[in-house]
Design goal:
The complex is a heterodimer of chains A (265) and B (238). With 265 residues, chain A is mainly α. Chain A has eleven helices and two strands, in the order ααααααααααββα. Helix content of chain B is 40%, strand content 24%. In chain B, strand 1 and strand 2 form a beta hairpin. The chains are: A mainly alpha (265), B alpha/beta (238).
Amino acid sequence: MTAATSFSIILALLTAVATGLVGSFALMKRMSLAGDVISHIALPGLGLALLLHFNPLLGAAATLFLGTLLIWRLQSGGTLTTDVAIGVIFTAALAVGTLLTPSEDLIEALFGGFQSLTLMSFSLGVLAVIAVTTFLYVSRHKLVLSMFSPELAAATGVNVSRLNLYYLLIFSLTVLLGLRFLGALLVGALIIIPAATGRQLTHTLTRFLIASSVASLVSVGIGFAINRFYSQLTIGSVTLNLSLGPAIISVATLLFLLSFLKRKT
Amino acid sequence: MPLLMVRDLTVQLEGQSIIQGLTFELETGEILSILGPNGAGKTVLLKALLNLIPYSGEIAWQQGVRLGYVPQKIDADRHLPLTYRDLCVSKCRIVKMPVTEIDPIARSVGLTDEMLKTPVGHLSGGQFQRGLIGFALIGKPNVLLLDEPTSSLDEPGEEHIYELIHRLQDQYQLAVITVSHDLSFVYRHATRVLCLNRRALCMGGPQEALTAEVLEQLYGPSYSYYRHDHVGTAGDSK
């Protein structure tokens, strides 16, 4: 295995921990749907960057940042139209993004794939993972109160609106980390599904956070292994294309289904 | 200076006037009951007192006042993997209180160790309400603001919560501001009553302030009879 390949796998595993943790809070904030579709807004930026030949992650970061501010505004407004706006904006982002993305890159932009990493990208990625986990660790108490009751959190002295903005920015940073190997359509799933598994299995906060991260880590680990050793699986006359993103999310979904068999601890 | 001084308080939400020109004062150790029909601005008044919403006019708390708040209802997800203790620990960390404060407070509101370990979604209505009151007591408040603390409970539960509030008031030397529909609590324990319907309709001790006319204005004609019953009960219990 080359250094570039190891970098890629290590960063993916670290990212898995970040998505598990961010997802746990997303689930508690009841923003799993918004969370799932937030990643779609990366697509227009990604497509534009590919079209104009600059770093696709920079393009994705730009539209994600704008999208984050937009969602924050919608949330703060507390209007009934948030659902509608999310429905419209994100499907529109998907459509426009698909139009902009050169067709040879489209599948990878939507569903991800394996990419080797330079030391520079790897280091930036690790820094981003550290930023995500540090924020969640430092703000966990405020996040917990604000998702239980924004009103009680505010009465306790938490600036709920600012906390929401920071959380959404951290969420977007996590999307950006996962975008590389999961694509715009699937990265949201690695944030939501392992957390759903964690919630199914636990009923205290610490165990929930650990279970979600482990579910995410296992999904990415097994997903990478499947993709590496059986990139195609032929059963009779049918050949399954086990590409990376779909393999990871399939494993995550399987774990979620298995979680129904176990009682809460 | 009084514990709380409210001068010419006006609150507008989304262009609609909810409270108009409200003025009142409260002294240390008092129990103020806020009465009024639905939509009278009772919850809004509490939120303004807590500085959670914008207002015009003046709200001045005495220096060193710490507020504890018990909201009317919390629309919490029943599947949240959060125990009651998780919530209390989070509040302790935010207000920088030692977590050792949790156990004595939980006991004082009648929650057992087992309940502390229970996910919040699995607590019964009464346990949850006690939990919220305990939660408000973290951080050593000297004023407790409660928004219809019994709205989700049946009658015996209601009675228990009011007894609890009265006991806590003694134990922690609290001033209490409560939105309440329960006139028997008002007559028995409140030292002051504020009748609200966008503006103040009455203010004073319950016996003087709650005249038949005021009650009729607040709730309609049937309530004026209700009052006489409770005046009698209150007198008997003295």
